[in-house]
Each structure stands twice: as C-alpha cells, then as structure tokens.
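Researcher: Final request for today, and then I'll write up notes for the group meeting. The sequence and the SMILES for S-adenosylmethionine follow.
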Amino acid sequence: MKADFESIYTAADPRPYFTELAPLDYQIPAHAGRVFGRFADHLHARGLPVVRIADLCCSYGVNATVMKHRRDFGEIVAHYTDPAVAGLDDTEMVALDRAYYAETAAAAPWIEVIGMDSAAPAVAYAERVGMIDVGLAADLESDEPTADVLDALRGVSLVAVSGGIGYISERTIGRVLDAASPDAWFTALCLRWVDATAVVADLERRGLVVERLDGVTFRQRRFADDTERDFARSETDRLGLDQPPDDGYHHSDLYLARPADDVSPPLGQLVSS
Ligand SMILES: C[S@@+](CC[C@H](N)C(=O)[O-])C[C@H]1O[C@@H](n2cnc3c(N)ncnc32)[C@H](O)[C@@H]1O
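Model: Predicted protein-S-adenosylmethionine complex:
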C-alpha cells in the first residue's frame, strides 16, 4: 500500500504538507514545474501571449511555485519547514506568503495558473496568497463542472497533472479538456506503478497523439517504508513496465498529448531544449 497523506492535503496552510513530505525528499513539483513550464514557454514563444495552465490535483499550488514563480523548489521546502514559521498563526502566515509570492508573481508574466483540487482549503490558500491565479475546489470524478468552473477553464491551452492520475481518471481529464481550448495540450507526470492505460486510450480516442518520454523517469519522493517499495515494485511488474532504478524513490513517467497537426518538435526535444 501507498502511505496515506490525506490529512495534510486539507490543512489550512501548506506547513503540515511540507513538514511531512520534506523528510521523504519530496521533489516532483521541481520536475513538474520545470517541464510543464517549458511547455508553456514553448507555446508562448510560438505566439500565445498568455498561456493558461489548468493544474489538476494542484494541492497548495506546489507546481506553480516553479512554473509561474520560477522559484527553486528547495527554497519553497525550506520556506515552509523553517522553524521561524512554525509558530505563526493563520493571519501571520497568510501575510508572510502574500509578500513572499508578490516578489515573484511577475517572473513569467505569460503564465496564468488555474489550480483545481477537491481539497478546498488547499486551493483557497494557494489563491489567497497568490501562488496561483485562480483556485477551483472541484471533484470532477463525482460531479459535473459548474458554470463557474467551465468559465474559469475557458481558454486553457495546457492541462497538466502531477501525482494526480489514480486519484483522478479520464473522467476528470476529459471534462477539463472539453472545457479548454480545442487545441489544448495535455501533460502528466504519472507514478510508474499507476495504470495510465485508460487515460492514454481516452486521449487517443479524442484524436490526440500521446507520447511517453523514453528512457527517463522523474523522482517523486522516497518510499515511506519497505511496504510501499514492495507495493510499487509489484504493481510495476503487474503492469508489465520496466522497473525504474532501485534507488529508494517513487518514479514517474512523463506524458504529453497534442493534436495530430501539432506534434513537432518531439517530446524529447521539447524537454531538453
Ligand atoms: C499526491 S497529491 C499531488 C499534489 C501535487 N500535484 C504533486 O504532484 O505533488 C494528490 C492531490 O489530488 C487531490 N485529489 C484527490 N482526489 C481528487 C479528485 N477526485 N479531484 C480533484 N483532486 C483530487 C488531493 O486533494 C491531493 O491534493
């Protein structure tokens, strides 16, 4: 089984989240922020004045700290685990973070992040302090999107998710893509031991061309314990995938889905350019 971090996803601010995950060398937002940010930069460079990204399962806006604010993720972890912030009350923490994110709000002015998560306190905090531009508390696995959600998703040109496939399926992703721009890209960092087959099949059914980056995986965090490691290894075997390096970490694969008339340059080139 995977360790259960449910309670840290719904705290009033991100301190418990980072305090719990930092000892496990939690780092997937560093990779997601860099790679998804690179896709957004590419879309901007070829003519989109503003690239609207829908970050699904965004939690406290962790990917936006890198892709929008261009912060070093290690600095973000240090910010929330600093003993000096542990004693701040809610108002003081919000004030500190508002000033903190105001410093870098214009680091990539062509990027707008719409963060969506079923954890209402997390998206509300991320929006309140300016980590993300718009926060949507929604569970599109269970519910139809409301008119507000549909409005907020209009004009989205990149739909992204890290660490979320498994929690959400092709149902949420399809509902978001239906509301986004018709030529939107979809990208995901998906744990290697999570079955992405149905998501990929649904993207292909929509006419998108799906690539999975070959030969490279991305560290998510350390295994919490041996049970998690054994579970990840047996699930990877069950799916018939090659085992990632046995280095004590969860590894994710990178996917990119694009319209058939928009598949150049190839994924490997986009990631390394
Ligand atoms: C493992 S965290 C991923 C956070 C971040 N994207 C990352 O890569 O580290 C999973 C997130 O999915 C959210 N989630 C779980 N079920 C969901 C659902 N049905 N709809 C939207 N978000 C969901 C949780 O609240 C949590 O914030």
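Model: The first strand starts at residue 51 and ends at 56. The chain is about 40% helix and 20% strand.
Researcher: Thanks, that's everything.
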